[in-house]
Amino acid sequence: MALLELHGIDVFYGRVQALRGISLELGAKEIVALIGSNGAGKTTTLRTISGLMHPAHGSVVFDGKPLTGVPAHRIVSLGICHAPEGRRLFPRMPVIDNLYLGAYARNDRPGIAADLERVFTLFPRLQERRAQLAGTLSGGEQQMLAIGRALMARPKVLMLDEPSLGLAPILVQLIFQVLQEINAQGTPILLVEQNATKALEIAHRAYVLETGNIVMSGTGQELLQSTEVQKAYLGV
Predict the structure, then answer these.
(1) pLDDT at position 234, please?
(2) Cα dihedral 115, 120, 126, 132 in deg (nearest 10)
(3) What is the pLDDT at residue 38?
(4) Same domain, 180 and 227
């Protein structure tokens, strides 16, 4: 059974329908990518799972239990953590305080300390910058902090929205290597990413969204080799 499932999700912004019957699933050990052009509905899908958007029809099921009507803060407590596009850090607070805020719903001090060490192992730069204000970090460092903050909640599912946006190629490579390491350590990842090639290279499975519809799905390698995907999203 999948850990996270969406069944027939319809979402509207006013009278405009953003998602049309979306159904997808994420297994307990998977990286699943959502690719598509701007406005396809990728971010809306993540926001719906997070409880920030409410579907008009359909259901979201996590670990066998429906999330319909569950408030966003409770969804975080259940184990779904969302690192949004734009990072949304607290720029006037130090790196270390931003990380601790990721664990705001926890009270297990030994576990929090262990997860902080895990984040510093994954991102040594954050340990070097732990006293620095988040707003003064480079773009790559801010993305590391956004991912690290989400990990401090000890997520059962990690959702990432455009983690490589605006980063230099060498940092993009680093971020994707770390995502694979996080997944290998046992955290499933639902990834929205404009860099479709990199996303498909690390994804076990992927879905292609167009104007709120899933138009194609398969393994990452299958979609990498698809002529339609190559023409539309990979620049081939």
Answers:
(1) 78
(2) 60
(3) 87
(4) yes
